[in-house]
Design brief:
Helix content of chain B: 25-40%
Number of helices of chain B: 17
Helix content of chain A: 25-40%
Largest sheet of chain B: 9 strands, mixed
Structural class of chain A: alpha+beta
Number of strands of chain A: 20
Radius of gyration of chain A: 25 Å
Oligomer: heterodimer
Distance between the termini of chain B: 57 Å
Shape of chain A: globular
Largest interface: A-B, 89 and 68 residues
Structural class of chain B: alpha+beta
Radius of gyration of chain B: 27 Å
Largest sheet of chain A: 7 strands, antiparallel
Strand content of chain A: 15-25%
Chain lengths: 575, 684
């Protein structure tokens, strides 16, 4: 069937709008703060072939990651097995790619009695019955990480399958919250279904299908046009995680990017085999992460459809951390993915120096405080990398988390027996460069209750945010724990460490990398940074070779000139 | 009783005045260019046309974009911010989210205060209001020295948990006032008495940023008006759709930020009383954007938090939803396919048919090409349009798509209509509201041209184009009341709350509200209070605002959870009666009733059927149809016409497509409705 460009455009906008509506529906009625605050969810519409029609992601990492879930569900039940009003649920890490806390809920869409597609949502539930409340930071196999569901019918013809619902709720420490989130996800599926059906009503199944074909072609063409602008070549980058939380051994990621004409291959061959700790990831989510990096660099504006990424080929070695097999633990699947995204950007930096940025601080930097009848989890914001045109932004959430918002101090002090002493930027933490990296943050919390335990997951100490083209790395992350009567300890990862009342944690996130040599930074910019307290007087001298008149904000031009010329000539100057 | 009530809408481009003569019942309208350097000059000029002497005005209300523009153009005051020690960076950190998440180069919105202008004072209050560290007055003195040396013109104070205990903020305010009697001073618990330190800080900073601008603007306006004999209080429109006196506005500057844009919604609320229909969807299609607002059950939808350029504000605001679709929206090609908007040609260069050098085809070009706009009567004839330029621009885009100019022009309109209908879908059906229960009220330059088509898309039966659609906001302002929205943080489990707690919470708010209204010279018998409470399931973040009765007893409280479950189900499609419900805030709208002008019904002066001034070929469904053109000023109440037809007035064109009919009601609003035959065909 031929379709005119006008109807195609109307249908295209209707599908985008349908996904946005599902998104709003889920956001507004979810129970778990991790969904509505941290936006740990995604929604999408598919045709019956599991090709993406429209999507909205709360987390960038969830970009186009639901199609696998639809495919494996169809593989199990068959297209004939779906009934109107059915709802399916699954969370198996090796099928969906993420950790067990992420529950995918999908529903077949029927139009005049015929299966025409699916609506699907994924959202992070607060507790799915792992060995520790919320989530374990030291799991070594998936069986410690909670209830594991393959594709499972949870509603049949509009009625809940009570036995299945019962199993799911009995396996959660927070059954009412889980039920609320499940209902919110189902409501979002219904919202998308209604909008999808209205488009079919108006344009007919054939009309919509014809438009969808045209829309896919548009997406593919946009991708290919953008890729053709990247110089052909083979590009490399390598980096490591500090460890897997179990040993002290680095966990490696190797990236090779091949650009040929209007195609791109991202090859992860050479990356570490799956490890005992939980930094393993399912294949489906690795694909999503590569798509995120691709999108950030190639087509950030274009809506994602079933025609996107046709020119992107991803090679992942089976049995590596990026395509883990049972029984690999997958709780922190996102930690290697944050590094992977940074490394793809780094690899392509010689090819497209104006589009890339230096590395960002890199991971979610999780702090968990678990009391007798409360728990608090928190991600930390840090610095982002500088670019050819601008300083990096300070205090933003990491790449895999996107629109996640930090929790207000006032809210947390209300809810939990903790008190904040300090929350702010760390001077001198941005990577020095002609353009400076963004600053990391410090957050100091005093515990005002007995019987709590602390878990930490801080990463990227060995690989702090690197600079580009002569720019330097940002500051490293670090957590200080002060327990009354004990010497202060420096920590990065720890599981369930008992903390008595009046213990103080002081968590520092890293800064972003700099871009270009720091000695090329305009001394007046360094002066502005000094006035605003982004750098200290000592930092200005150490990192930028800029000297200020004693006790003021005036640049000492002569001394600065001497400092800088000697640094450029390779000598160090006594300070 | 004095003779006139006057409403003024001071926009970026035009200043509109609507004056109602209470003796004759006549409404007079005047439109003059705004005078950005001294806005009051434009106001006085516009007034001169309709009100002989300001000493005859009994009520004067105006809406203004002066605060909004100061913010948008970053021309506000130099602000110093005082925070709790350890929390200097609350404002700069924000919430740390990246709303544009695939953008590697994302930057936070440009702040109104730099880090160098933030000062930490030693003090600490806990969440329960207890003081753990008293205010360090010596330290405060040193901060004041720095403020003096720094030459600031406004100071904002935002301390942790000040909503729970404002004592330290008040003490700082007293200190600042003693030392700097002429500085604008804003404190967070007054700007927004709600928790969440970043949002509250952002609100108080905005208040501090625009307060000096608003203050000097109001001073000059009041001076100008009183020089012309005005003796009554000057009122200003607030973002919440109510008004306040100029004196109150000087302290509550942030509440004027959307003073101008909310006028349309308020016009809708006033129109609702004339139309006697409780549900209206008001749409304003301008050059670059399409603004939608809802009147549900007779009241405009209010929000309690909004964002401007990603900066949050905890103030009540009439909900205005905007999408990028307007007369200037450009039709363009991407990957070989057609797109319309959101990029806009704006006013410069404007559509291709404007004599300003634009070459890209826009929605306005499509309408001109289709014959829906008269090239000689655009903006009442203030600008002559060039149809050939439109045709050439359309041809350039149509050719690669294999379309004719006509197909493209109609296609552009179909796409932009579908986009606008999609926007309406999201704020109605997406929230469990059926748009078919609504009248579509269209105003602004482009709204009445597209309204019937948008209504078709959504299955809405009735379109209303109000009288004076170009001065609709100013007209609406005449019908508003004084309103102040107050909040009392009230965070507790419903099952652990007593009716007495709630009564006490509201009594505090009522005392505060009565105080504010008294200061605005509202007599006690004209005060009224609307009570609501923010509630949610334990663990949820988003709240629902639930109406509360004036008196609450144990029985009433026992029925609250059921009311919440029901509201949740209505809003979100599901509820959980087993889950516990908690209160978050008590809210009170303190209203001061103002006298309303009585709209007079018109009378027919003759019984002739309406006569078109001309006919013109207009394209509908691919072919030209000879279409009668009416001038609105020549139409009278109960005149009827059948589509296709076009009604022209200064600055606005109403299109009645085939299959639609129209008439003027007793107040001379234009009604459009699908003809019976069409309606039947659709339902079949």
């Amino acid at each position: 069937m031929n379709i005119d460009p006008i109807t195609t455009e109307i249908i295209r906008n209707a599908l985008i709008s349908a996904a946005n509506e599902m998104n709003a529906s889920l956001m507004r009625s979810a129970y778990s703060p991790v969904i509505y605050e941290a936006k740990d969810y995604s929604v999408a519409l598919f045709n019956e072939k599991a090709e993406l029609l429209g999507q909205a992601a709360g987390l960038p990492l969830f970009l186009g990651n639901l199609e696998e879930a639809v495919k494996v569900t169809t593989a199990k039940y068959g297209l004939d097995g779906y009934q109107e009003g059915d709802v399916y649920i699954l969370n198996d890490s090796y099928l969906t790619g993420t950790h067990l806390g992420d529950l995918t809920i999908l529903s077949p869409v029927f139009f005049r009695g015929t299966l025409v597609g699916f609506t699907a949502t994924r959202a992070h539930w607060m507790d799915v019955g792992a060995k520790d409340p919320v989530l374990p930071v030291d799991s070594t196999e998936i069986f410690q990480e909670g209830l594991r569901l393959g594709p499972t019918r949870v509603f049949a013809r509009g009625e809940p399958v009570e036995d299945v619902v019962d199993i799911i709720l009995r396996n959660s420490r927070l059954p009412q919250t889980s039920l609320g989130d499940m209902n919110a996800q189902i409501a979002a599926c219904r919202t998308g279904e209604r909008r999808f059906q209205s488009a079919l009503e108006r344009f007919g199944v054939e009309g919509v299908n014809a438009a969808v074909e045209a829309i896919f072609e548009q997406s593919e063409r946009l991708d290919r046009e953008a890729m053709a602008r990247i110089p052909d070549g083979e590009y490399f980058a390598t980096g490591c995680l500090d460890n897997d939380g179990q040993s002290d051994e680095s966990v490696w990621t190797q990236v090779r990017v091949l650009v040929a004409d209007d195609r791109m291959t991202i090859d992860l061959t050479g990356s570490s085999p799956q490890v005992r700790g939980s930094v393993n990831c399912g294949y489906a989510q690795t694909i999503s992460a590569c798509r995120v990096a691709f999108k950030m660099l190639v087509t950030p504006e274009a809506p994602v459809t079933g025609g996107s990424f046709r020119g992107l080929h991803v090679v992942v070695p089976e049995g590596s951390i990026y395509a883990a097999r049972e029984p690999a633990a997958c709780q922190f699947y996102f930690t290697p993915l944050g590094l992977l995204i940074d490394l793809v950007v780094q690899a392509l930096s010689p090819a497209i120096p104006d589009q890339v940025t230096a590395a960002h601080y890199g991971d979610s930097m999780m702090l968990y405080l678990i009391g007798r009848n409360w728990f608090h989890l928190d991600a930390h914001m840090g610095g982002w990398g500088a670019s050819a045109t601008a300083d990096g932004e300070s205090a933003l959430i990491n790449a895999t988390n996107g629109d996640l918002r930090n929790f207000p101090v006032e809210l947390m002090e209300h809810k939990f027996p903790i008190e904040f002493r300090r929350y702010g930027l760390i001077p001198d933490s941005g990577g020095p460069g002609k353009h400076r990296g963004g600053l990391g943050t410090i957050r100091e919390i005093e515990l005002r209750d007995d019987g709590a335990v602390l878990s930490l997951w801080f990463e990227r100490w060995k690989t702090p945010a690197w600079g580009l083209f002569g720019g330097k790395a940002g500051a490293r992350p670090q957590v200080m724990l002060h327990v009354p009567g004990e010497p202060e300890k420096t920590l990065l990862k720890v599981s369930q460490r008992p903390c008595p009342r009046a213990s103080v944690t002081s968590a520092r996130s890293g800064g972003g990398g700099g871009y270009g040599p720091a000695v090329q930074r305009d001394p007046q910019w360094v002066r502005e940074d000094l006035i605003d307290g982004y750098v200290t007087c000592e930092g200005a001298l150490r990192d930028y070779g800029v000297v200020f008149e004693p006790g003021g904000f005036q640049v000492d031009c002569d001394a600065t000139g001497r400092q800088r010329s000697e640094r450029i000539n390779g000598k160090t100057v006594p300070m | 009783m004095k003779r006139f009530v006057v409403g003024v809408d001071i926009g970026g481009t035009f200043t509109d005045v609507v004056a109602l003569d209470r003796e004759s019942g006549q409404v007079q309208v005047s439109k003059v260019p705004s005078t950005p350097r001294d806005l009051s000059a434009g106001v006085l000029a516009a007034l001169g046309g309709v009100v002989p002497s300001l000493s005859d005005a009994s009520f004067f209300v105006h809406g203004t974009t002066v605060g909004l523009n100061a913010f948008l153009e970053r021309r506000g005051a130099r602000v110093a911010l005082i925070t709790t020690v350890g929390f200097r960076d609350v404002y700069e950190l924000g919430r740390g989210n990246r709303s544009d998440m695939y953008n590697l180069h994302y930057h936070k919105p440009r702040r109104l205060v730099r880090r160098r202008d933030v000062f930490e004072v030693h003090e600490r209050i806990r969440h329960d209001g207890s003081v753990t560290q008293p205010l360090d007055l010596d330290r405060l003195d040193r901060i004041m020295d720095q403020i003096e040396a720094g030459g600031y013109d406004s100071v904002a104070v935002s301390l942790l948990h000040a909503y729970a205990n404002p004592e330290h903020e008040l003490e700082i305010e007293r200190g600042l006032r003693r030392r700097f009697p002429n500085l604008a001073i804003s404190v967070s618990h007054e700007a927004a008495r709600e928790w969440r330190e970043y949002e509250r800080t952002s609100t108080v900073v905005m208040n501090a940023y625009i307060a000096p601008v608003i203050e000097s603007y109001l001073a000059s306006l009041e001076e100008g008006l009183s020089a012309q004999g005005m003796t009554e209080l000057v009122h200003i429109m607030q973002s919440n759709g109510g008004v306040m006196t100029a004196r109150a506005a000087k302290r509550r500057a942030v509440h004027t930020i959307m003073s101008g844009p909310v006028g349309g919604a308020i016009g809708g609320a006033a129109l609702m009383r004339q139309l006697d229909h409780p549900n209206l969807l008001c749409v304003d299609m301008g050059g670059t954007s399409f603004d939608m607002s809802l009147i549900v059950g007779g009241t405009p939808e209010l929000r309690t938090q909004v964002e401007l350029q990603e900066l949050p504000l905890l103030v009540s605001m009439v909900g205005i939803h905007t999408i990028g679709a307007g007369g200037g929206s450009i039709a363009w090609l991407e990957a070989g396919s057609l797109r319309v908007g959101p990029i806009s040609a704006g006013a410069q260069p404007g559509p291709a048919c404007y004599p300003r050098g634009g070459i890209e085809p826009t929605v306005t070009d499509a309408n001109l090409f289709l014959g829906r706009i008269d090239p000689h009567y655009f903006l009442g004839g203030h600008m002559v349009l060039d149809p050939e330029a439109s045709r050439a621009a359309l041809r350039r885009v149509a050719a690669p798509l294999g379309l004719s100019e006509t197909e493209l022009a109609e296609g552009i309109c179909r796409i932009v209509n579908a986009n606008m209908a999609g926007g309406i879908w999201e704020i109605t059906i997406g929230k469990g509201i059926d748009p078919r229960d609504f009248y579509l009220v269209a105003f602004g330059g482009g709204g009445p041209m597209h309204a019937a088509f948008i209504a078709e898309e959504l299955g809405m039966s009735t379109v209303v184009v109000p009288h004076h659609p170009g001065a609709f906001s100013a007209w609406g302002m005449l019908h508003s009341d004084i309103r102040h929205d107050l909040v009392n943080p009230f965070y507790r489990l419903m099952e652990k709350t007593s009716a007495a707690d709630i009564s006490r919470g509201f009594a505090e708010l009522e005392a505060e509200g009565a105080g504010v209204l008294t200061a605005e010279q509202v007599p006690a018998e004209q005060m009224s209070f609307i009570r609501t409470a923010d509630m949610r399931y334990v663990g949820q973040e988003h709240v629902l605002q639930i109406p509360m009765p004036p008196e609450i007893n144990a029985l009433g409280l026992a029925q609250m959870p059921a009311a919440f479950h029901e509201a949740h189900h209505r809003r979100h499609g599901h509820s959980n009666p087993k889950e516990r419900v908690e209160f978050v805030n008590l809210r009170l709208a303190a209203m001061g009733q103002l006298p309303k002008p009585q709209a007079s019904r018109y009378k027919r002066t003759h019984e002739r059927a309406p006569v078109p001034v001309a006919t013109r070929a207009v394209i509908f469904g691919g072919s030209p149809v000879e279409t009668p053109i009416y001038l609105r000023k020549e139409l009278q109440m109960r005149d009827g016409f059948v589509g296709p037809a076009i009604i022209e007035e200064e600055g606005c064109t109403t299109v009645v497509p085939p299959g639609w009919q129209g008439w003027l009601d007793d107040y001379t609003n234009i009604f459009l409705r699908r003809t019976e035959r069409e309606a039947e065909e659709r339902t079949r």
